[in-house]
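Escalation from tier 1.

The customer reports that the assembly of three entities below gives different structure tokens on two consecutive runs. Tier 1 could not reproduce it. I'm attaching the input and our single run for tier 2 to review.
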Amino acid sequence: MNAILEVKNATRRFGGLVAVDDVSFTVPSKGVTAVIGPNGAGKTTLFNIIAGTFPPSEGAILLGGADVTALKPEAKAARGLVRTFQLVKLFQDLTAIENVKVGFHLKTRGGLFAALVQPAWARNAEKDVEDGAAALLDLVGLSKVAFSPAAVLPYGQQRLLEIARALAARPQILLLDEPAAGLNAEESERLAKTIRRIAADGTAVLLIEHDMKLVMDIADEVVVLDYGRKIAQGSPDAVKKDPAVIAAYLG
Amino acid sequence: MVSEQASPRSRHFASAGIWVLAALIVGYALVFGGYIATIVAFALIYGVFVSGLNIFMGLTAQVSFGQSAFAAIGGYTSAVLTTTYEWAPLPGMLAGIVFALLFALVIGFPTLRLKGHYLAMATLAIGLITYEIAVEWESVTQGYMGISGIPPLGIGPFEAISDRQILATLSVIVVIVAFAVTRIRKSRLGRAFAAVAGSEEAAGALGINVARYKLTSFLLAAGLASIAGSLFVHVVGYVSPEVFGMHMVVLAFTMVYIGGLGTVAGPVIGALIVSLLPELFRGMRDSQDLAYGITLILILIYAPKGLAGLAQSFDARRGK
Amino acid sequence: MDNMHLVLQSLISGISIGCVYGLIGIGFCVIYNASGIVNFAQGAFVMLGGMVTYVLIERFQMPYVVAALGAIVVTGFVGACVERLVVRPLWNRSAPMFVMILATLAAQIVIERLTYILVDDQPKTLPAFSDLPPIMLGGVAINFQSLWIMAGSVLIVVALGLFFKTTRTGKAMRAVSINAEAAALQGIPVSLMLTLAFVLSAMLGALAGILLTPTQYTAFNMGVPFAISGFIAAIIGGFGRPLGAFLGGIALGLIQAMAILGLGAGFKNVAALSLLLLFLFVRPSGLLGSTR
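Tier 1 run:
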């Protein structure tokens, strides 16, 4: 299976501290890949390097075979890599469905002319956005709250809404930053189902996660970090039995 | 709180009421003419200016204390071209828009990278520099003396000379502007503005080029400010630097906050109310700016969403 | 007088005006460090310093020194009013920053207009502090008021430094600026410190206005240009550094003096504003780096 994302010898230093140390792995274009590790293992730094918040000190990020190491988040999004945030970043004043409609930005065209004149193609595109947004809200189970402002939704729904919004950009690879953080068991289960559904629909998913149960339930491949280094990689079952991983989590 | 199931259609009751109120005020001025028509005409010009400010501040959540600069460019371009060079008003206004957009483009690139009080101070400085230039560049602007004898608005043989003609022309322009803002708000462009306003980081993650949309929003605001400046000089027939001073900025902010930031009707009703209120207290002519300043502070503290904001939350409650 | 002397004389007057800009800039820093707020009404305090002194002398026949002290007290009170009536209510509602900026700008207009109504719109000036002829230094005439300004400003900066370093109140204010929560835990009344910062900043502004007015004039609408100059001083010095702001003020005064020499007095403000934009665009953290 060909790789959608390739992390090659990524290193990131902050002053004297090496937060990510020579990490390499690939993410296949199908399925769910998870990066796990104890607190302070460098997961968030790695995530930010991949998403383009800041570049690595050394190493490269390849997306669909092309070097995207130095690209900004919006440029990476345009090439099919879309992220969510650990602390959900919704457009608080907009309704749920409006949030998702914003997500269609990359998949639609039109500026001032389309807004003012509203030619037939723009009206059709708008209709498609409307339908697409409704379908995505349905996918994550938020149809009932479509017209509520994002700010009033409970936290679990806000997370699902953020994922729906990211999906609107039709990413080739969806990056989820600790999606289960702050969710209760029921919400977590709902999230796991949604992620499996997304992967089954053909979108590669890379998630950084603290919650082992979620990872073991849904991941096809697991990368384990400790002190900034990759210490193991493999299927959830293989990783679970890996002595280095056990040592890292218990030690 | 907003109800969970209210469909978007059922919400516009009180907001429509605001438009009716605005129409009644303009209608009254049209019927009775005279002094009130003059006041309402100025209010409508401000309505155009504030609608632009509202695109930049309300829709895109940026801040500019220097929009008066673009009004000055539009106003002076119209004034100079229609007097010294005897152009017709419409081409003069278009030239003003072009100059204002060019200036906004040049100044926008470095300015819009700034955030917070740096952005505020930089835009304030741009407004003040423009004012100083209007004062000092006497060969073109005639300094404090100003330029007089500017012809009235008109296209071809038609000229808006009487109060009612002016008012009717301005009303049409305001309706067009409001219609345009409504369409922008509901479009892909408007959603990108809203995304920048909501979270620049999240907008970037969805592939929205934040810098570009900030600039677009800034250009739209500058264009409308320029139109307002041109309209002003044609309606008054005279222009001087004082027109585009700090007074204009504070007045515009009072209007946009009274009306309601981010709404379409807000700038229009805000401009009408703020223009008409001092007329109710004739004795206060001297202390208008004082009243505006105090009103603005009180609104910022006690009703930061303004009239249209109140109407919206009323509609939302009713929709439950 | 030859060119060299003219230049030197301009430079000296530039430095003395720069000292005043520096004081205004420090006023910005005091409030910014205490609260993170940039007080756009700062210029009103400068205007009030000169204006109130003038009114106390002309209408109430007070001696110069008493009038100046009175002006400082009155302006300090106005500073407290701005904090209590405008800033605090917004602060308590955690208003967004630009609402705060807009509100202080509106406060500036209110103070300006009240002055216009209570006094009038005519430019006012004050007599020089001492009725002495200019000092001649190798052919360069130094206006005596310039010496007052320079000496006075340095004295104020030193006194302010001592206040922050040695007094209980000064130390408490510094603690709040470093970490408000920790300061609150130590029993420092944080909200009182914010009021104090406004009072102190207003009094500094008033002092700047009193020093400056004899060399030029003040009028109800002079506040915004003063504020801009002080803001530029603060930016050049790296926002939040009082000493940096003072040096930044002197730099601005010098550059302005050169601009007047080269381009004429009309471009004084344009030069200052362009310098502001240049700094914001190229190096917003100032020459010394910002504190936040």
